[in-house]
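ugh ok so i messed up the first submission bc i forgot one of the chains. this is the corrected input, ALL of the components this time, i swear. 870 residues overall. if the numbers dont match what u have on ur side tell me asap before i send this to the collaborators (the ones from the other lab, u know who)
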Amino acid sequence: MTERTLIKNLAASSDGPVTVSGWVDTVRDQKKVQFVVLRDESGALQLVHPRAEDADPIADTISALGTGSFITVTGDLKHDERVKLGGIEVLIGEIEVVSEALESPIAEDTGVDKRMDWRFLDLRVPRNNLIFRIQTTLEHAWRTYWVEHDFIEIHTPKLMASASESKAELFEVKYFDGKAYLAQSPQFFKQMAQPAGFGRVFEIGPAFRADPSFTSRHATEFVSVDSELSWIDSHEDVMRLHEELMVAGFTAVREKHGAEIEAAFGIEVTVPTTPFPRIPLAEAKRIVAERGYEVPRHDDDMDPEGERQIAAYVKEQFGHEFVFLTDYASSIRPFYHMRHEADAGITKSYDLIFNGVEISTGAQREHRIEVLEAQARDKGLDPEELAFYLDFFRYGVPPHGGFGMGLSRVLMLLLGLPNLREATYLFRGPTRLLP
Amino acid sequence: MTERTLIKNLAASSDGPVTVSGWVDTVRDQKKVQFVVLRDESGALQLVHPRAEDADPIADTISALGTGSFITVTGDLKHDERVKLGGIEVLIGEIEVVSEALESPIAEDTGVDKRMDWRFLDLRVPRNNLIFRIQTTLEHAWRTYWVEHDFIEIHTPKLMASASESKAELFEVKYFDGKAYLAQSPQFFKQMAQPAGFGRVFEIGPAFRADPSFTSRHATEFVSVDSELSWIDSHEDVMRLHEELMVAGFTAVREKHGAEIEAAFGIEVTVPTTPFPRIPLAEAKRIVAERGYEVPRHDDDMDPEGERQIAAYVKEQFGHEFVFLTDYASSIRPFYHMRHEADAGITKSYDLIFNGVEISTGAQREHRIEVLEAQARDKGLDPEELAFYLDFFRYGVPPHGGFGMGLSRVLMLLLGLPNLREATYLFRGPTRLLP
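and heres the new structure output, hopefully the right one now
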């Protein structure tokens, strides 16, 4: 391993010899002294070289340095309050250019599409790097919560013999002499863990939707955060799990990255209080209408503007960034959502809205096979095609429920990013398969 | 939430009223007293009901109980040393059949193929449930190691515009009006994190191989455990990371599940000592030949029997279950493996063998663009098709390397399972897409 000190650890190091490695951010090639800003995965550092009067190979190397080149420098660390960049600098003793760089085709003001073409350069921008360190912290906090609460991690297959949601958005795969489909969600397979007696499960993995939308909130491949648990009484139990997870995740992010996030995004991460506000959808629509917005839909669903409006109301009334909209109409929910005993027109389900945008759908699932079959038929589905799934309910199954949540959506809304692409390592859309 | 006590927590609970939920394992319906063995995700429990002399609705319910039905029972917990099953039993006060079960189509001696048809029932078997709790612990230990060592978690796309490994094993996806391919590994994209300045990354996610093999060690979809890190000097640094991860994972598994594993699989989990033995492949072949086994291959590769033989040698000589075979010939390694300075015929790469089977390949990657391009051409690849990948190396990139490892293979070999299917939640093979 190259013996190097991470830049973030230099401030706490004592003055003296040190080796650092990273890439060249900027070069100021002045007459008497040369400055290089070096970056690595942990931060930025000023390197300095006073030019010698005669032959000076180090100065020549620095003058020829291209931005983005990867270098290793050995030199003398000096703490100096006058240095704006962290109060330290390294006097260059040796410099090795490990990998030269062509000139970057993108700059800070380059449009998002071209930046995505050069995503590996775009990700060098410190705030972009920060997004994925936040993602790491968020996921690890969630998984730690799950593991500490005896959830089993599952990896459900992404290759399926049939659709799990709507057929319209299904990617078809040539599978030897036949066909397969890409999973639109782990729905059926995480439910399978329930008759399997796993009790409580989680998965963070890819899901695929052949959705030709070009909105800022859609992708053809996305990371789905899923959990499912047994022996619930209603969707209320799922919401309780869900809000505890959000608290665990946001607490970890705030602790580890709160200051960085404030500096880079101007956002103070708020750890939400529990319980999150819960508003039945019908009431939410009334509230939104009273605020002067009539949801322009013919079905019973909310629309994005309605979600923004109800979020604004919740923020004003309860000072909360989250709201559970509950009891969606059966007409707009999948067949496997359980319906209310007293009113089969509404389901035991919810959407979780965060900063005005839906990030998740959860529900109690219908586990009674006769009811489930009837609801499938009700939706015009062919029980034949669902046979393998319906079997899960014929051999004993506990009451259960869960949710699925878009990872990049959470990040986008947490950090106030303008679109999903910024919160995705490598975005996939209808016209985007590269790099 | 149904107020229930997990069975594993009953032993430490005091005698008195308790509610338990789970599924019926067995019923012994005797004249004077009825016994039910109840199972939940945490263990098994004896329920008891002395028959009343006259009308006894509880006895009637028990008599009608089908194996596999999910029930909730409220009753009196009693500690009693004479009860073989954990020294406790619950005297049934109330019993509710929550979900009835058809008779299970599988039994303990059912063949693996039919068990896979009914995987959700097969997973109820305690040792199968244990496999996935071990998986959870293993993954969480790995991720905790990575997070504590400042690795960034990435989710690379599974939809690609071109092949990342061999074209022969590529699944093709209809992608709107065009085509996409399923990622065979996150290779290119985890390498992308290096010029992106991420430093060190990891991912646990699915990978896809259109491999028509039917061996016990292959699947068309598998979970790949990947890591990649910057500023290495050689593949030795990758091996060092790799062995530390194995130690962290096995330590956690042994601590949490050591006793259960010994009981269920008759295996004592050994935490490996470091460094693992390292043997260059050419030497390994000599050793194997001396043991009387000539590898029947025309290329420079090892074969499965050779791997078993060298593992047996290592076990005898060093008492170790792991061995790194290093320095594979360039002829049998992908173009992106770095070759030795002194001998371009061998690569800075390794396979990790565990209990006689390969579980992982690792290497230092070639990061010098001219060399990389030449090696690609050398392998008959079209640099045009690799353009997006080759670009990663033109704008500055640190020396780097990493490995990919099959999750189910590790579990299979750790627990002495006969095939991958047993170690996979839902197996996918050339003729297996259901359930």
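quick check: The CA atoms of residues 231 and 399 of chain B lie 5 Å apart. that seems consistent at least. Chain B is about 30% helix and 25% strand.
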